[in-house]
## 1
Amino acid sequence: LGCFLLQTVPAARAHDEALAWTPASPFRDELRALGVGALIRDDAEATALASTDFGNVTVAPAAAVLYPSCPADIAALLRASCARSSPFPVSARGRGHSVRGQAAALDGVVVDMPSLGRLGGGSSSTASRLSVSVEGQYIDAGGEQLWVDVLRAALAHGLTPRSWTDYLHLTVGGTLSNAGISGQAFRYGPQISNVQELDVITGLGEMVTCSKKKDADLFDAVLGGLGQFGVITRARIPLVPAPTRARWVRLLYTGAAALTGDQERLIDVERGDALSGLMDYVEGTVVADEGLIGSWRSQSPSSSSSSFFSGPDAAARFAKLAEEAGGVLYCLEGALYYGGAAGGERDVDKRLETLLRELRYARGFASVQDVSYVEFLDRVHGGELKLRAAGQWDVPHPWLNLFLPRSRVLDFAAGVFHGILRRGTTGAMGPVLVYPMNRNRWDSGMSAVFPEEEEVFYTVGILRLAVSEGDLGRLEEQNDEILRFCEEAGIACVQYLSYYADQAGWEKKHFGPAKWARFVERKREYDPKAILSRGQRIFTSPL
Ligand code: FAD
């Protein structure tokens, strides 16, 4: 039980290998004796599913899977593990959208969080774990709930959360364990900055309701806490009156300096630039040789076309612009909300007019679509369906996500977008995101790690798929090369949705001395036996 070995296996084999594994279940009888309403399975089918994830790069076989019917089932499981001289690992698994086994529990028990919604309250159980208070302007959401269901429940009352991820089929507990970022974070902060209260079950099996006012240390620990301090079973998310529609804008740029300069003007909500606050959502992508504009993340939900920039001569115009720009283009992606609580169409037209006049994009390369608010927020789902149909959703995803200080983003662009990414990855698909956020919307008391030295920092998401034989190895090598480049160039980046092979990596490369000391102290307080989320490879033995 104490040993922790996460193997990297060729993707096609990952699921088969997990299936072939015969569970040892050394604590099968103990699990059966828990006396909970939960379902417990240790057959190969159940454990195989819980042993791999979206990344499809690693396999870490679990001994059993707990399908809880209520939070008390999870508390009982954690207390049973705690009571052993050799505690077994327990990991909450949302939808397993991690990419490196972070939600796995090698030789331990994976808690299938969606069961809380399915088994928890009769036929309308999902609805019963999503409860909107119109008066209080908040929603109480079970930790297992998907953000897309949170959206639907809130919109039924004309309300909406403010901060999102680009993909909504992620769980509330899963994204709050990381940070939860998207193009609204510049204004409202990440999702972890938009929580009023949590119900948490600590590694000791204690059920605690916490907030900034009550048990604030646990609250701060759990938000961005990588599942290390407790299982989130409920989150109270503030709501605001919802818009009904979005103008979805794409603008092509021929250089990183122009793109980032414009992005920074748009997110500068404090100092009042002419452009500040004109967009409600600000992101950006790197458009390299493969023409990432047609990539899965960029699909228009209501369009059969695979690209926003379509038309008879679009490809030729695009190729000419790319050639002029030296092979790398950038795309600023933005949205302006309107309708409902967000003002009328005339106002949005005026805002758009100002933007198209002021922004420094390549003239003639603007695309504007008018979609519903829901279509805009749930836009990545359309891409998912298309990739699934093409058999390209369950392929390996050797993703690399980084946060880097504003002052080094152009150095990063020169070395990585114009250098490393342009070599030897023919056929590799997937978006490369780049967009800034305001540091003051993040709370440094919480566990999430982000660059704190400058007012603005960037996220870069290199979200590629390994489609052909050999891609995975090549892309992983390239990720290593990018990290080496940053180290050698002195670009102080940290990973988001991080992966480090061992504790030393977390301590030295991720947290640094002060934050590491606090993280360890909190672990000692809330999960001293290091039972929770060992798949993150941070703590593998009791403290
Ligand atoms: P899992 O992968 O199941 O779990 C993630 C971690 O959280 C694990 O350590 C797990 O043990 C822990 N955990 C899960 N549930 C709980 C809980 N209730 N309580 C405590 N710990 C828990 N992220 C962004 O920030 N922005 C994006 O725009 C974005 N887009 C994405 C698009 C796609 C297609 C995918 C696959 C991922 C994207 N992500 C994004 C990453 C996403 O935030 C992470 O994958 C996250 O882990 C959520 O996935 P999940 O809910 O399936 O959690």
## 2
Amino acid sequence: MAKRIEVSDLDIYYGAFKAVEGVNMTVEPRNVTAFIGPSGCGKSTMLRTLNRMHEVIPGARVDGKVMLDDQDLYSSDVDPVAVRRVVGMVFQRPNPFPTMSIYDNVASGLKLNGVRQRGVLDTAVERSLQGANLWNEVKDRLNKPGGSLSGGQQQRLCIARAIAVEPQVLLMDEPCSALDPISTLAIEDLISELKEQFTIVIVTHNMQQAARVSDATAFFNLAGQGKPGKLIEMDSTQ
Ligand code: ADP
Ligand code: ADP
């Protein structure tokens, strides 16, 4: 079930340095929202606060509120690890476990969640690889290492791994910037399909990509050298 994200009065710090200031925004479910802006304006930082990955960095701190439907992600009784199960992340560089099999790459999160039955895992692995438009390419080589795939296939494998645990939100940090143009288009098509099931936020510095895949675009900028990034405008793209 996709969920709505509501961010209020968010400031994000690295130690004493305020990287992002005063963000208020709503990210609608079954939509793709693009974060766009110059390098250093805080797009990745912003993304990492949406699944509490930011605070893994020593000294990192968040002020303000992030709601997932009616749940306050930063409430003191919320476990950050549980948040990261509900809000999945795909990174800029495809990062499958390179020596682990394709099958186990997809099954890894489910196994961490305690799923053991082979039949259940088989079904989930096939469904996730289908969902990531990778099944037909890998169904005869599921025991081959994840690192044996092409860059574009590896990124789709990472997406399959992310969706296998059935998150409600998918965060993608420049998911195409390490890929060739053909693989990029395949990932963009996939993102457009996945939005039927998930709330998707994608960081990109490519305006054309934002226009192609997103329903809404959040424009960030730098207030000045050494100053925090700010959300300056939120547009509906289509
Ligand atoms: P991008 O602009 O694509 O996010 P960067 O090259 O800015 O990539 O950052 C790469 C990594 O280095 C990120 O994980 C980011 O958090 C980290 N990083 C960026 N700036 C700093 C900094 N001033 N101090 C420590 N780590 C940083
Ligand atoms: P963007 O993704 O828009 O390129 P980032 O979120 O990576 O921007 O960075 C925003 C600001 O925070 C930059 O000034 C960057 O140097 C700083 N920053 C990013 N990661 C770290 C980090 N791990 N430690 C300290 N400063 C960081």
